[in-house]
TrEMBL record:
GO terms for cellular component: plasma membrane. One of its GO terms (molecular function) is ATP binding. This is ABC transporter ATP-binding protein. The keyword ATP-binding applies. The lineage of its organism: Bacteria, Bacillati, Bacillota, Bacilli, Bacillales. It comes from the Bacteria. It comes from Cohnella terricola. It is a peripheral membrane protein.
């Protein structure tokens, strides 16, 4: 469904600050894949996510979605196509708006302007149902301003908003990294539930090695702008963290240098 074909991304090309963030990346993402992504600092993980979401254009190569280059997709179509949650809990929601207003915005995302909304009561019921599944009482705080929520609460809301309109692909960019362990686990559980129920195609960057092995059906490893290993489900499920790190070292020739690494 989504193919990266020899995708290469340079920053500041032709200057002394030139940086190759991604080199000849080839990746074939199939419908229903849940791919975890690990790699060293500056390996190109965020650049990969930015190319897939169409935020960045490859300098060489292509990102093709069901036969269409992502860059040529109209913005409204792309925003409906992709759901994304960032590391920063502030990034996915509007702090001065209420929970209900944020959800309304997410619900309208990518829909033609002025589309009839239906009864307010029906909308509230839907929002309450969705919020109550998180299990942290947000359904009783629908008129609270989102800026007053904790990081974990905001991240839970961001995840709900990103998946509200059932995106074709869900991009999770270290979305639990800024949370304490208990909140990170809550968001991980919620992620697994939503991905499973909606059968979402998902790409998740993580610094948590145990999580990278436990979640999803594929694991890709990145180093210095390259995808150096793509581990299928059969192999991934029996891997240990030390084997994973050993594999990284064997292929890259150096240890995984990730200053935010969590072993599990
Ligand atoms: N806007 C930019 N301008 C210049 N260089 C950039 C820019 N964005 C990224 N880079 C560089 O490209 C390389 C890849 O960056 P990227 O953010 O994709 O890595 P990453 O794997 O997500 O890193 P980290 O795990 O440290 O967040 C890095 O060397 C980074 O410094």
């Amino acid at each position: 469904m989504l193919n990266l074909i020899n995708a290469t991304k340079l920053f500041n090309p032709g200057t002394p600050d030139e940086k190759i963030a991604l080199i000849n990346a080839n990746l074939n993402i199939k419908p229903g894949d849940f791919i975890t992504v690990i790699g060293s600092n500056g390996a190109g993980k965020s650049t990969l996510m930015n190319l897939i979401s169409g935020v960045l254009k490859p300098d060489i190569g292509q990102v093709v979605v069901e036969g269409t280059e992502i860059q040529s997709m109209p913005e409204h179509k792309r925003s409906r196509w992709i759901g994304r949650v960032f590391q920063d809990p502030m990034a996915g929601t509007a702090p001065t708006m209420t929970i209900e207003e944020n959800l309304t915005m997410a619900y309208k995302r990518g829909k033609p302007r002025g589309l009839a909304w239906g009864a307010t009561a029906a909308k509230r019921k839907l929002f309450r149902e969705q919020l109550s599944r998180i299990g942290i009482g947000l359904e009783d705080r629908m008129s609270a301003k989102v800026g007053l929520l904790s990081g974990g609460e905001r991240q839970a809301l961001s995840l709900l908003m990103a998946t509200f309109t059932r995106p074709q692909i869900l991009l999770l960019d270290e979305h639990t990294a800024a949370l304490d362990p208990a909140r990170a686990e809550l968001i991980t559980r919620l992620t697994q539930e939503i991905v499973r129920e909606m059968n979402l195609t998902t790409l998740m960057v993580t610094h948590n090695m145990e999580q990278a092995i436990r979640l999803g059906n594929r694991l890709i490893m990145m180093d210095q702008g390259r995808i150096i290993l793509d581990i299928p489900e059969e192999r991934k499920s029996s891997l240990t963290v030390s084997q994973l790190l050993g594999e990284f070292e064997r292929i890259s020739g150096h240890q995984l240098s990730d200053d935010r690494i969590v072993l599990g």
